[in-house]
Structures are given as C-alpha cells and as structure tokens.
Amino acid sequence: MMSCLPVDRESETGEVCANCGRHGSDTVKLKNCTACRLVKYCGVDCQRAHRKQHKKACKQRAAELKDEQLYSQGLEVRSAPGRLPHPERDIIMKICGACERQLPDDAFSVEQRGLRQRIRRCIACVAAGNELVLMKRGTTRDEDDVCSVCQLPLPIPMEESLLQPCCMKRVCNGCILYGRKCGMCNCPFCRTDVPTKESQVLAMVQKRVAVGDPVAICFLGAHHERGTYGLEKDTKRTDELCQQAAQLGVKEAHFILGNLHGCGEGGSIRHYEEAAMCGHLLSRFNLGVWEYNGGRGHLALQHFLISAKLGHTASLDAVKRLLAEGIATEADYAGALQGYEAAIGEMSSPSRDEAKAMGIEKLVRYNTGPRRPGY
C-alpha cells in the first residue's frame, strides 16, 4: 500500500491511485478524496480498499481544512480542550482561491479579504490575472454524465433519463425506448428484470447500499428527504447518507446537501462549489444566481458562461439578461450560444427525439415498469 502523501495538483503525469498505484491517463481518470484532497483514486473500489489505512490521515486533514475554512471567513478558531495551540493561529490566515496558498491577511486587499475563500484572490494573483480554481474545474462533463448504453452525453433534464435501480447506471430515454421496441423488457445495461413494485425498487437499492455503492447511498438519501418509495421522511438521514456519498465522490450528493442546507455562505455554497467543480450544471447555475444576487455580476457571468456552453438553457438565458444589463458583452453571448448549440447537438439522437416527443407519461406506460426512480 502507498502512504497518504499529498498529490501534486499541477502535475498530471505524477498522479497515481493511492491504493493500486495506477497512473492517471486518458483512460484512467483519478479523483480526489473529497474529504481531505490528500490522495486520489482510480475508482470507488480502490477508495474503499484504502479506507482503513487512509481514515486517520483523512480525518486529521479534514479537520485542518475546516479550521482553514473558518479562518478564510475571518472567524476565530479556538483550541479544543487538551489540544496544543497551533502557531499559525496567532495570525489570521486566508487561502487564495486562485493559487490555493494559505497566506497572511495582509497578502489580500481590503476588498478581497471580505470574500469567501473560493472567490478570493491574493494581491499577487489579482495583479497576474490568475483565474479562480472554481472557474477552471468542472468546465466539461465527465464520464458520469454519459448514457451507460449509447455513450452520448446525457440530456440535462433529469426526466429524460432513468437511473436503473438494479445497477445504478443512468440510461437515456432514447436507449430505453429503442430497447422496448426490440422486445427487451429488462435493464438495457445489466439485463436485470425491470421491477414492477416500489418495494422491489427499494430492495434493489438497499442491496447496492449494503455493498457500498456511492450512487445507491445518494439515491437512498435523496428519497429519505422526499419520503418516497415507502421511506420515512427524514432529513437528518438524508444528510448522513449524502455526506457519505459526497465523501465517495458523488457530485449529486453535494447538490442535494446544498439544497438541504438552504441559502448561505456556510454549507450550501460550499457544497454547490464542490459539485460545480465536478461538472454539476445545476450547482454551477445556482452559484451564478447567488453571485448575481450578491452584486457580483462578473462572477455570476463566469458561472453562467461555463454552464451555458455545456448545454444549460437557463444559463444561456441568464447570459442574455446580463448582456442587456451591460455586464456581459456581445462576444460573451456569442461564445455561450455557440457552445450551447454544440452541446445540444452532442446530446441529441433520433431515439431521444422520439422519446421526448412521446412525452414522459406515455413513455412510462410504454416502459411497463413502476414509477421511474431517480433523483
């Protein structure tokens, strides 16, 4: 086993899985441990296998990050009983959202000091025009955003795809419709029989949860919030399950937690930021709305441009509104429109168009299955 050493974020060639040692490449996508960001993994199996060895270091670093977050908000961090004073706690330290260095308070302008960590830049980064990390990550859709059957980018509206409870793979409506036309009445991905009752759906999900499937854990948490599939409505349980799924790298879990915690610069914005940096479009849009309402139109524009170019219609409309208000330029809108049209084209197929024209209710009846599970 490898030790829990920090991963060099700037070096692509030096990135390795902390469990198996595989190097990151075009085919091997490594993801950070979202709790501590000390190590990376090539998949959930390696993350679970390495958990026992990594747990202590992970918790320690997560606690340090929490302290740093409090510092970044200008809050005092008091030592817990029996905890030795930290030499850096005598000085207010802030983290730059561009270079990600922890710097003394005087390394930031008065204006920047009042901003939260992810959108704050030190004097040197402002002078150099360095971009915020928040705006550099999550600008493309990853492998979680493609249909497990046709491998095309998934449509953005959740009702245009189906999360299969048997294997926790998301399949677009076009592939489901095509399969039914070919006489397939089972899962298009794993060929498991389609459940006919909600209790069967829940049993399948709980079976996946029992083996540590992060997507299933998130699914269960989402439906505890709604009280659906026979589950008791329990937001505390939702929080517990989605926190667990978020630590395992499920961006949808961060989005659910952001919605659960309500508006504010505490938990909700932090979770939206984590999800947005993983390519979650609705979280990116929510951040844009938050910045716009906070009077930071230039930051709102950056968020909307990213999500619009990935095919998010409401974000494109927001860029158009900012153009009318003089915040965006004609070039900004033209670039957003070009990216939007390209993304929509990539998400389109004859089968998807037919399924969309059929309508969700008719498709569900055609599917002959239960109420469609999903987030």
Automatic annotation (TrEMBL):
Superkingdom, natural source: Eukaryota
Gene3D superfamilies referenced in this protein's UniProt entry, alphabetically: 6.10.140.2220, Tetratricopeptide repeat domain
Gene Ontology MF: a single term: zinc ion binding
Keyword terms of this UniProt record: Metal-binding, Zinc, Zinc-finger
Entry-linked Pfam families: zf-MYND (PF01753)
Organism of provenance: Thalassiosira oceanica
Secretion signal, residue range per the UniProt entry: none
Keyword Zinc: yes
MYND-type domain location: 17-58
UniProt protein name: MYND-type domain-containing protein
Keyword NAD attributed: no
SUPFAM superfamilies: HCP-like, HIT/MYND zinc finger-like
